[in-house]
């Protein structure tokens, strides 16, 4: 049988009975929208995340929009982020009329490079794109926030990022759609930025059986405004609207799934860590394996390796495909080069690290139920191919 890239079926077997019983309870009370399971799972999420407030919502994309909207970020505002991420990161900023200012990543962690954040801030202040590439219209931008991404599950360099934000009076919105469950220097990654957004899309480390997401914060006022934005900008009552918002609620049925999945999540994170360690050991010397800096723990949304060059990457992917081993390229086009963002004016070569990574990176099957035997096959196939 072919090896799956992620194995949702094997996972379902762990929680199916609990979920079916939970669904029965929902069918008995029929509160499909904001039923009691929502509050229950939000309390459990907040405890796990190490945050005072957890608000569930309809997707990871909406989890990024909620804080941006609650902070009033819009036209004329800039948000610093990474181009080497899933499209939704930049999309959330641009949807609100704000401008993403991209900053290249560290070639070994794939996460936003704090030294380059400093340069971009300097360039914005001096209105001088020779210091660091800036998007079109940079002369009129006010920098409001930084949106780091915990790419592939690895926490961003938060000590540096939070220090810059404090000095410059900026908000930090962590895009932890892939990183929920990760640990940064002994703390859950979701407890560090002013607000953290995550996704419960099925393929994420903590996925449900549909769309979903959540935001985490210790800030009471921000939590209150995000709660309002989540339901059409409601005030003290649902039919009293104090701002424009979204319909961004999480479903009660998915809250049942999330409760069951959260229960097995710590064990799954340990299992992913074991899979990563076996890859590290088995692939040593054949491809560049992911770097996890001292004191960091990845949630291993992906296990991504680097080849010598673009030709080698494509050859490796073809060889694995021939051996029935699925792989993925995350991400083939860095966001600043996506057609929709051409008006930002970022030239090819403006983000060289991200542009190179997109040509030499390859993600291997990674999930908590990957057997040692299947993994050995993958390792041998990679070693044979390179
Ligand atoms: C998946 C993802 C999102 C969006 O989450 P959805 O639940 O699919 O809307 C945002 N940012 C990153 C980095 C992601 O991987």
Q: Which value, in Å, is the CA radius of gyration?
A: 21 Å
Number of helices: 11
The gross shape turns out to be globular
Q: Bin the helical content.
A: 40-55%
SSE-based structural type: alpha/beta
Residue fraction in strands:
5-15%
- Unreliable stretches (pLDDT < 50, length at least 5) are none
Order of helices and strands: HHEHEHEHEHEEEEEHHEEHHEH
| Biggest sheet statistics | 7 strands, mixed
Each distinct ligand: pyridoxal-5'-phosphate
Report how far the terminal alpha carbons are from each other. 24 Å
| Overall pLDDT score | 97
Strand order of the largest sheet: 1-9-8-5-4-2-3
In total, the number of strands is: 12
How would you characterize the overall build of this protein?
By secondary structure, the chain is α/β, with parallel strands linked by helices. It contains eleven helices and twelve strands. It is globular and about 65 Å long. The strands form three sheets. Strands 1-9-8-5-4-2-3 form a seven-stranded mixed beta sheet, with helices on both faces. Strands 7-6-10 form a three-stranded antiparallel beta sheet, with no helix packed on it. The chain starts with 7 loop residues before the first helix and ends with a helix. Pyridoxal-5'-phosphate binds next to helix 3 and helix 4.
């Amino acid at each position: 049988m072919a090896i799956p890239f992620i194995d949702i079926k094997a996972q379902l077997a762990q929680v199916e009975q609990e979920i079916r019983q939970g669904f029965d309870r929902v069918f008995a009370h029929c509160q499909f929208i904001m039923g009691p399971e929502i509050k229950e799972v939000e309390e459990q999420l907040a405890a796990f995340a190490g945050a005072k407030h957890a608000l569930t919502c309809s997707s990871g994309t909406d989890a990024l929009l909620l804080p941006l909207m609650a902070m009033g970020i819009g036209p004329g505002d800039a948000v610093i982020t990474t181009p080497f991420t899933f499209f939704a990161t930049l999309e959330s900023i641009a949807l609100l009329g704000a401008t993403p200012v991209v900053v290249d990543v560290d070639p070994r962690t794939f996460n936003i490079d704090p030294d380059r954040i400093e340069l971009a801030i300097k360039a914005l202040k001096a209105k001088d794109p020779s210091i660091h590439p800036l998007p079109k219209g940079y002369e009129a931008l006010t920098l409001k926030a930084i949106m780091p991404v915990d790419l592939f599950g690895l926490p961003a360099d938060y000590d540096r990022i939070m220090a810059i934000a404090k000095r410059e009076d900026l908000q930090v919105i962590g895009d932890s759609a892939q990183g929920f469950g990760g640990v940064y220097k002994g703390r859950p990654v979701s407890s560090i930025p002013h607000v953290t957004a995550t996704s419960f899309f099925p393929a994420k480390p903590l996925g449900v059986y549909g769309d979903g997401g959540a935001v985490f914060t210790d800030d009471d006022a921000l939590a209150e405004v995000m709660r309002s934005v989540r339901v059409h900008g409601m005030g003290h009552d649902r039919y009293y609207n104090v701002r424009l918002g979204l319909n961004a609620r999480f479903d009660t049925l998915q809250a049942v799934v999330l409760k069951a999945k959260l229960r097995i999540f710590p064990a799954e994170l340990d299992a992913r860590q074991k899979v990563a360690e076996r890859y590290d050991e088995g692939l040593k010397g054949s491809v560049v394996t992911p770097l996890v800096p001292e004191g960091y723990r990845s949630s291993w949304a992906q296990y991504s390796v680097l080849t010598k060059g673009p030709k080698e990457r494509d050859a490796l992917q073809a060889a694995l495909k021939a051996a029935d081993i699925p792989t993925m390229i995350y991400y083939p086009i860095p966001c600043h080069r996506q057609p929709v963002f051409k008006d930002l004016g970022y030239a090819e070569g403006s983000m060289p690290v991200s542009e190179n990574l997109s040509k030499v990176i390859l993600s291997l099957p990674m999930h908590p139920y990957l057997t040692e035997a299947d993994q050995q096959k993958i390792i041998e196939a990679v070693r044979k191919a390179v």
